[in-house]
Design brief:
Blueprint lengths: L13 E6 L13 H18 L11 E11 L8 E9 L5 E10 L5 E13 L4 E3 L3 H7 L7
Antiparallel strand pairs: 1-3, 2-5, 3-4, 4-5, 5-6
């Protein structure tokens, strides 16, 4: 069976610690896949807040999720403290990828890695817009002259 691969950066500029709540545990007794997406959203919101942004206001533009890729590596259980790291990658004309690494804080064991692709969005006009220049300056690597 072929597995999806997701390469992660060597370092992440942001991390937060979030405990697994009892409501995050499914009938299998471990962190549910739906709850993991909610934890990733919480980490994304904290990352944005650190830069004085929100999902509805990044330099005056909103964000909308285009897709999500989640790879599961190991189980997490009620009470586990998860370290969720976030990095921005592949900033394009209208959006970017947000990459996540989720580990059990105490053991360092990888629980999951994920990627969400977002586009910048004008909610009033209901259309995709360009990446804000200030966001691009913060998160896109500078172009190299060769």
């Amino acid at each position: 069976m072929a597995r999806t691969k997701l390469d992660l950066p060597a370092s992440f500029p942001f991390s937060t610690d979030i405990p697994v709540r009892i409501t995050d545990v499914n009938y299998g007794g471990h962190l549910g896949n739906d709850s993991l997406l909610s934890l990733l959203q919480e980490a994304r919101l904290q990352f944005l807040r650190e830069h004085a942004y929100s999902e509805k206001d990044v330099e005056g533009r909103g964000m909308i999720m285009l897709d999500a890729v989640v790879l599961y590596r190991s189980e997490a259980f009620y009470g586990d403290l998860l370290r969720i790291e976030v990095a921005v990658a592949d900033v394009g004309p209208h959006g970017c990828d947000l990459l996540y690494r989720v580990t059990q804080k105490e053991s360092g064991k990888e629980v999951s890695r994920a990627k969400t692709t977002i586009a910048f969005f004008d909610y009033a006009k209901r259309k995709v817009v360009e990446v804000p220049d200030a966001f691009r300056r913060k998160f896109a690597p500078p172009m190299q002259n060769t």
